[in-house]
């Protein structure tokens, strides 16, 4: 009898938790994707003083957290819509994208750049992380439609229409002005060109009008790459029910950010995984599991208790299992939904 109790005690100390084992097994079979991080800024410009916590993103951390793929964004803060301003924004975006290419080459034993959904799957099969390229803020386009294809040729497969200020493409949700009343005439051209090339339209940061207009204008599903639910935390950057429903009705995605700013009014030290799950549950109940996912905003202000960086991402999977989500639904939420709209964008490219 003593031996039996000793074995039970030792098993609890040394053997993995059964739920943790299930998490690992689940990640063997699914593809997990994070749709937004800001790693590129510090990578391209290491001498800049970071305004938020950095070091949350790397191929090594992706492997540790069982994250298979992530969109790495080339971000530019909004500046004046002048020739000089647009030249500077293009320099920033180009520099960050080229830096990401160099990173992928230098660490090719750990990861590589993915251009299609199949590339993501192939890299996972090789045991390597997939880096997907995106742009946060179409400011870098200026008013030059040819730059959409320029960025496609650099590997970009998603472009965010705005950041925290109106540009020549669209109005931003956090700007006090309303320059275009949503999308500009040029913005409609940009979306049509993105559709033609197979680039996903990202409406995180876009104004309410610009978001709804983009949903209507795009012939392929759009994404809010890193947002939250306005009904749970009423800030401009979060999506209203009207926006969530509109995005979902056109087959698009609402990617919930892993950050206190989006999730709760509580102090940062009190915001954790339950708040993230609350936002996920809300979207699922409103529009279904096919229209939700994760967009961390790591290296750009993201991070909560229990998921401080990419190395802790699988904690979300454990929480989803504890919440009662099925393996199939978790597979959709983590990456299946993103792969679906990536494939739609690719298949529809050239048909418009």
What features would you describe in this structure?
- The chain has 352 residues and is of the alpha/beta class.
- It contains 14 helices and nine strands.
- It has helices at 2-14, 18-29, 39-44, 59-64, 83-106, 117-125, 146-153, 185-197, 208-217, 241-249, 260-263, 273-287, 314-323, 327-348, and strands at 33-37, 69-75, 111-113, 129-136, 156-160, 200-202, 223-227, 253-256, 292-294.
- The longest helix is centred in the first third of the chain and has 24 residues, at 83-106.
- The chain is globular.
- The model is unreliable at 2-15 (pLDDT under 50).
Give the topology string: H per helix, E per strand: HHEHHEHEHEHEHEHEHEHHEHH
The major β-sheet equals: 6 strands, parallel
Number of helices: 14
Q: Report the CATH architecture.
A: Alpha-Beta Barrel
How helical, in percent, are the residues? 40-55%
Give the key terms:
352 residues; alpha/beta; TIM Barrel; 12% strand; globular
Helices and strands in order, then pairings?
Elements: H1 2-14, H2 18-29, E1 33-37, H3 39-44, H4 59-64, E2 69-75, H5 83-106, E3 111-113, H6 117-125, E4 129-136, H7 146-153, E5 156-160, H8 185-197, E6 200-202, H9 208-217, E7 223-227, H10 241-249, E8 253-256, H11 260-263, H12 273-287, E9 292-294, H13 314-323, H14 327-348
Parallel strand pairs: 1-2, 2-4, 3-4, 4-5, 5-6, 7-8, 8-9
